[in-house]
Amino acid sequence: MKKKLNNQYFILRHGQTTHQTKEKKFIYNWPDNPPVKLTRKGVKQIKAAAKKLKNEKIDLIYSSDIFRTRQTAGIVTQELGLKINYDKRLRDINLGIYHGRLKEEFYRDFPDRKKRFYKKPLKGESWSDCRKRIVSFIKIIDRKHKNKRILIISHGDPLWLLDGWVKGLNNKELSREKYKTTFPEVGELRKLL
Q: Which of 166, 169, 180, 184 would you call most buried, defined as having the most Cβ atoms within 10 angstroms of its Cβ?
């Protein structure tokens, strides 16, 4: 069942980074070490999203505190002139020992998407852990503000999990939908329904 929220939310995934080009073969989520920045294409994506946001009369901006989302938020705030509220709960999923390793290693060890909800990599998080963190954030923010238009700047997995929670999707539905319509593209802006 869809969640009823007190505010209107917009979600924005950070723009393309140097680790999200065609050559990307490595996992780069959290920790942000070393920090990666947006590509020229990523900057253009966010400038385009910021122009769209100007018409949405955004009241507040909340952003992940790691470099690629800070850079994204900085571009958005140049257009909107709003203060940025950074929050650690909006960070990307932590894939533990797989950070910096080849994607194929992770997918070999975690081939079943449904199991990624409860099976976590060593020193990392499961999708359920990540969802708990992002849902905790939205519940607190939604109680704190009323009738506001709020922009959330984060990463693919947390935004996908938040979108699924708001729509009332269970783990099975989410894992089936991830690669179809609900996973946000880099630089994608959408209204949270």
A: 184
Q: What CATH number does residue 41 fall under?
A: 3.40.50.1240
Domain annotation covers residue 1: no
pTM of the complete model: 0.94
Q: Bridge partners of 8?
A: 149
Taking the C-alpha atoms of residue 164 and residue 132, their distance in angstroms, rounded to an integer, is 12
- At residue 84, φ and ψ (nearest 5 deg) are -100, 130
Residues 48/186, Cβ–Cβ less than 8 Å = no
Q: Which whole-number Å values give the CA distances from 25 to 4, 28, 99, 166, in the listed order?
A: 39, 9, 12, 32
Tens-place pLDDT, residues 122-171: 999 999 999 999 999 999 999 999 999 999 999 999 999 999 999 998 88
Q: Rounded to whole angstroms, how far apart are CA atoms 9 and 127? A: 22
Beta-carbon contacts of 168 under 8 Å, excluding residues fewer than 6 positions away, are 1, 2, 3
Is 3 inside any structural domain? no
Contact (Cβ atoms closer than 8 angstroms) between residue 32 and residue 66:
yes
Indicate the number of domains in the chain. Answer: 1
